[in-house]
Amino acid sequence: MINFGIFMNKNILSHRRTLLPYLANKIKAKNYLEVGVKGGKTFLPIKVRKKYAVDPDFRIKSPYKRQQIFKYPFNMLAQYFACTSDDFFTNHAPSLFEKNTLELVFLDGLHTYDQTYQDIENTLSYLSEKGLIVVHDCSPQSASSAFPANSIDEVKKINPPGFDGLWSGDVWKVIPRLKLEHPELTVLVIDHDSGIGIISKSNIFTQDKISNKSNYSVQDIHNWSYDDMVKNKVNLLNIISDQQLLKTCQLF
Known about the structure:
alpha/beta; Rossmann fold; 12 helices; 7 strands
């Protein structure tokens, strides 16, 4: 007999736009923060009553926004902050989250190692003990997509060999950095959709917690290239197979 539950969950794992709504419902999230919203295609479909959107250049089209409000009226209450993530965490987060700790956060902002790690550190200050941080672009699929730069416009100008317009940057480096500096966290990567990282303060596995054993330094991480990562990808990024995740993770 076909196990349709497992088949459904495999589909959930395949993309951030299926995974995030599922997680929001699974953990019964009461608040949601997204950094790097762009057109709102990830942000607006998520059914959480208190939602916070951060992007210095929103590109949400009015017809789409109206459509999503019709589907989920609480989208009318969503708060939008047209600023950088640093500005948001400095000037807005302290008052917003003083009493309401964050339960689900999606980080998909500037695709650089330094900024993404800073966003994670800032988020951890407000994350509840049962909360989750989801990070996009943690497992780039090619050297060109992992090209380190300050913006996608910079990458387009340089046009590295094999570049096809998809850019993850060096966000992947945040995973080994977290393993090194935050061994108390549960950190894993689902190897779909350019790599979907999940970070939790608690152990979300029914069996032993994933090991954060590391034998490298912050300077090593800074110096690593895409090729260095590929040589030891599964261990460095704590990549969990779909089968193992569905079998041992309490979220599924």
